[in-house]
Amino acid sequence: MNPQDVRKLTEQVIRHFYDFYRYTDSAHRIDHIRSVISNVIRICYTNGWQEHLKLAIIAAGAHDIFSTKELRAEHHIKGFTWVLDNKPLLMRKYKLTSDECYTIAYAVMEHRGSFKGNYNSIVSEIVAAADRGIPSKDDVTNYISRSYLYARDNLEKSISNAKFHAVAHIQDKFGRNAYAKVPDWYHDMFARELAERRDIIDMLDIDFFTPDLVEDLERKLNNNP
């Protein structure tokens, strides 16, 4: 895909799934989807995997459509089922084959950091890696902010407890003994960045939440995308 086609597809996917993300929890709204699609594009171009861009962008758009308070625990399964139930629509809208729809469905189901099986395809690997993010020092703020919003919105924790939850969650998920699964090539591709980020994450405490950051996050809680 050339850059113009990538931009057109990205905006088409955003428009298609936008209304789903009006109802997802505060940590999984349309800004998160735009970020994951951007990561998909960077990963594919860096590795010369442009042939996988189309399916990976569509899967990234769909991967959190059921990440609501009520369905969070099973959102990956609901997303998988939705893709298969809507195969005729997706095939017509994006000029896909039946097999390509299955590839997208599995990528949606396998994107979670807690996924324990073998990835169905390279598209699943790309989407999972993009959802983990492009590691950098700066994205620690993004991760811990989304975790705080999740704790406040989904778990209904107090501001103080949400801070503790966010720090513990990010250290468990991305720290030195991280549980979040990524493809093997992710560690090679971002070895230096991962090491730098781990050092920051291991040193995190609730003082990371400045008054300005908390004020900004509280403002976002009730805002639609």
Short description, anyone?
This protein is mostly helical and 225 residues long. 64% of the residues lie in helices and 0% in strands.
Describe the structure.
This protein has 225 residues and is mainly alpha-helical. The protein folds into two domains: 3-132, Hypothetical protein af1432, CATH 1.10.3210.10; 139-220, no CATH class. Helices cover 64% and strands 0% of the residues. It is built from twelve helices and no strands. The model has no long low-confidence stretch (mean pLDDT 93).
Question: What order do the helices and strands come in, and which of them pair?
Answer:
Blueprint: H1 3-17, H2 30-47, H3 53-62, H4 75-85, H5 87-94, H6 98-109, H7 122-132, H8 139-153, H9 159-174, H10 184-189, H11 191-202, H12 211-220
Helix pairs in contact: 1-3, 2-3, 2-7, 3-6, 3-7, 4-6, 6-7, 8-9, 9-11
| Helical content band | 55-70%
Overall geometry: globular
Would you report the number of β strands? 0
What is the CATH architecture descriptor of the largest domain? Orthogonal Bundle
> Helical element count?
12
Total discrete domains? 2
Question: What is the CATH fold-level name of the largest domain?
Answer: Hypothetical protein af1432
Along the chain, the helix and strand elements come as HHHHHHHHHHHH
Say which CATH homologous superfamily of the largest domain is assigned. Hypothetical protein af1432
Sheet/helix structural class: mainly alpha
The N- and C-terminal alpha carbons lie at a distance of 28 Å
Main β sheet profile: none
Oligomer: single chain
- Residues in β-strands, percent: under 5%
Average pLDDT score:
93
CATH class bucket of the largest domain: Mainly Alpha
Question: Low-confidence runs (pLDDT<50, min 5 residues)?
Answer: none
Radius of gyration (Å):
17 Å
